[in-house]
Design brief:
Elements lengths: L1 H11 L5 H68 L1
Length: 86
């Protein structure tokens, strides 16, 4: 909200010197682009973290599946062994 208020106030400004007006526009554009660049870098970091998390979760799922298969095999082997003893 503050940003919108500042923009509306600045858009109301009138600069009589055209060169000065152009310098002001360029200066504001540079600041805005620097902020956007920083935001994009932060966003890329977040995307990389999300990708790493997705990979970790995928590995965890595979490990869990493997553990379940091993547990199931052990249980089946135990049941077969008990049946053979009976």
């Amino acid at each position: 909200m503050v940003f919108e208020e500042i923009c509306s106030v600045q858009f109301a400004w009138f600069v009589f010197d055209e060169e000065l007006e152009e310098e002001i526009r360029i200066s504001i554009a540079k600041i805005c682009f620097q902020c956007m660049e920083t935001s994009l870098k932060d966003f890329r970091v977040l995307l990389n973290l999300a990708s790493m998390l997705r990979n970790i979760l995928s590995m965890e799922r595979r490990i869990l599946k493997q553990d379940m298969v091993i547990c199931f095999r052990k249980t089946v082997d135990q049941l077969v062994a008990e049946q053979m003893r009976s």
